[in-house]
Every structure is written in C-alpha cells, then in structure tokens.
Automatic annotation (TrEMBL):
Chain segments annotated as coiled-coil in the UniProt record: none
Keyword Oxidoreductase (UniProt): yes
Recorded GO MF terms: peroxidase activity
Record bears the keyword Chloroplast: no
Carboxymuconolactone decarboxylase-like domain mapped to chain residues: 19-96
InterPro entries, sorted: AhpD-like, AhpD_core, CMD-like
Gene from which this protein is expressed: ahpD1
NCBIfam families registered for this protein in UniProt: ahpD_dom
UniProt keyword terms in alphabetical order: Oxidoreductase, Peroxidase
Protein's recorded name: Alkyl hydroperoxide reductase AhpD
EC number: 1.11.1.-
C-alpha cells in the first residue's frame, strides 16, 4: 500500500514538519549520547509499529557506527548483554513512556531512579523530550501509512536544509 498522504509535499504539512524537526534538532545537539538517542528512537518506533521511523533510525544508527549486533538485539534489550546500564535505563524509560496506556503509573519510580542515576538534568530533559518527539513522529507516519525501506542516512536533515 502506498502512503495515504505526503507530509513533505503539502504546504501546511511541510511547514509543520520543518518546525517539528527543528525542535528535534535541539535533542540531536544535546549532551545525550547520539547512540542513546538512536537506540531510544528505534525502540519507541518498534513498539509503535512505525516502519518509516524504524528504517530511518536503524540506518542513522548504523551510519553513526552502531553495530549490527546491538541493532539486532534492541527489541530484546532486557535479554541481551550488549547494552550499558545507562542505555538500559534509557530504554526502560522509552518503553514505559511509550506504553502509557498499559500502566496506570506511566514511568515507574524504579525506572526514573535509574535514569537519574546515569544522566544529568540536561540529558534527562533530552531523553524525555526525545521519547515524546519520537512518539509524535511515529503517529504522523503511521496515520498516513508512510512505509519504511526507502530512507537514506541524512535524508531528513537534507530535506530540512531545502
């Protein structure tokens, strides 16, 4: 099935997408490690079933040097030995922050304590806003049936500069 709607070709949607992406640039430029940013974005996108975003974040992570082993194991990170304690805390926050309807408490105190143990205030802010932004991006792409497979690393950044 083709995408229902092209968010890059419609004038209003293109303006919104540029503003949305510019907010995401703050996160990209934050002190939160790039690897953590991409792993979190990839895991959130997997949970939400967003093929476009899974494709984009897997390819961006690989282009930034992420290993195939870690990319393959991200969906089962709890059962893998290749992630640091800090990454595990970020992934737990990402999952709990994405699955809000599945738990009445949202992010657990245990997960929050682990995040605070490993990240400073600016990194926490970047992590929380990243989870929110990726969830929003996933919803945009899923609603319009934007399919994965055609993304090239740097493609979105190149679109923004036009």
């Amino acid at each position: 099935m083709d995408a229902r709607f092209n968010l890059f070709e419609n004038e209003f949607a293109a303006k919104f997408t540029k503003r949305f992406a510019n907010a995401g640039l703050l996160i990209a430029q934050s002190a939160l490690p790039k690897t953590t940013q991409e792993l979190v974005a990839l895991r959130v996108s997997q949970i939400n079933g967003c093929g476009w975003c899974v494709d984009a974040h897997a390819k961006e992570a690989a282009a930034a040097g992420e290993t195939a082993v870690r990319l393959s194991l991200i969906a089962v990170w709890r059962e893998a030995t290749v992630f640091t304690e800090a990454e595990r805390a970020a992934l737990a926050l990402a999952e709990e922050g994405t699955r809000l309807a599945d738990a009445h408490q949202g992010v657990s105190d245990e997960t929050w304590d682990q995040v605070r143990k490993h990240y400073d205030d600016d990194q926490v802010a970047a992590l929380v806003t990243s989870v929110a932004m990726v969830n929003a991006a996933n919803r945009l792409a899923v609603i319009v049936h934007q399919k994965g497979g055609s993304y090239e690393p740097g493609m979105f950044a190149n679109h923004l500069s036009n």
